[in-house]
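Researcher: We plan to redesign the surface later, but first we want a full-length starting point. Tokens attached.
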């Protein structure tokens, strides 16, 4: 009997300790007041946060991505909601690949690009380039608009089926076919790229000429400030 009571008491103590520890960890991280979790503002938003996983051009989780969360400045998230609402009337929505990106993640990209011996993901993400060309082609840079919090990588998805629309090239493919206006894709693929571009520009975003998925809020609130808080 005493042994049973002891075990129950022990389990209660362990449970309380775990709960307190989890709560403390939650309280330790405070999202900067300038930022929001995009899905809290846009509940129908979908995401596939590539840099939280190994499904990316480096082939492993990226520094600073503690949780698969989509974080943006309040202004960028509000503008993105307008895009989502408009696409929603057509039965479509947005799927986010990346949003705010810590500077430590950008630093990891640079370090990776400088290491020409690491080519494990070459065939999938940069089949026609040497890593030494990634800086000159502006696919990799020491500073990124993502780190300012108002840049987002995204595509279009069916809200009914979850099917991701075919844009003519994979996300993060470092190749000329990823250019927003690349001509040698199908008529349907061009139409979908144009659909995304027109809706994003209508609601205040500007496109990136070399990456169909990359958009930055034209009137971003922190054009000269680069953040480095972790995503959690």
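Model: Full-length starting sequence:
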């Amino acid at each position: 009997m005493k042994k049973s009571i002891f075990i129950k008491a022990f389990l209660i103590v362990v449970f309380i300790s775990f709960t307190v520890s989890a709560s403390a960890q939650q309280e330790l991280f405070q999202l900067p007041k300038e930022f929001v979790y995009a899905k809290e503002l846009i509940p129908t938003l979908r995401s596939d946060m590539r840099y939280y996983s190994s499904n990316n051009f480096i082939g492993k989780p990226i520094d600073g991505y503690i949780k698969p969360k989509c974080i943006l400045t309040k202004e960028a998230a509000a503008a993105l909601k307008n895009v989502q609402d408009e696409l929603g009337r057509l039965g479509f929505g947005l799927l986010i690949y990346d949003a705010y990106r810590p500077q430590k993640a950008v630093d990891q990209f640079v370090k990776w690009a400088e290491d020409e011996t690491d080519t494990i993901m070459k065939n999938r993400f940069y089949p026609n380039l040497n890593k030494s060309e990634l800086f000159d082609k502006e696919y990799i840079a020491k500073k990124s608009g993502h780190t300012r919090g108002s840049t987002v990588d995204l595509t279009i998805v069916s809200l009914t089926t979850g099917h991701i629309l075919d844009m003519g090239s994979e996300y993060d493919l470092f190749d000329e076919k990823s250019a927003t206006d690349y001509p040698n894709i199908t008529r349907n693929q061009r139409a979908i790229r144009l659909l995304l571009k027109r809706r994003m520009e209508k609601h205040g975003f500007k496109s990136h000429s070399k990456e169909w998925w990359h958009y930055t809020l034209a009137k971003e609130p922190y054009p000269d400030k680069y953040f480095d808080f972790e995503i959690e």
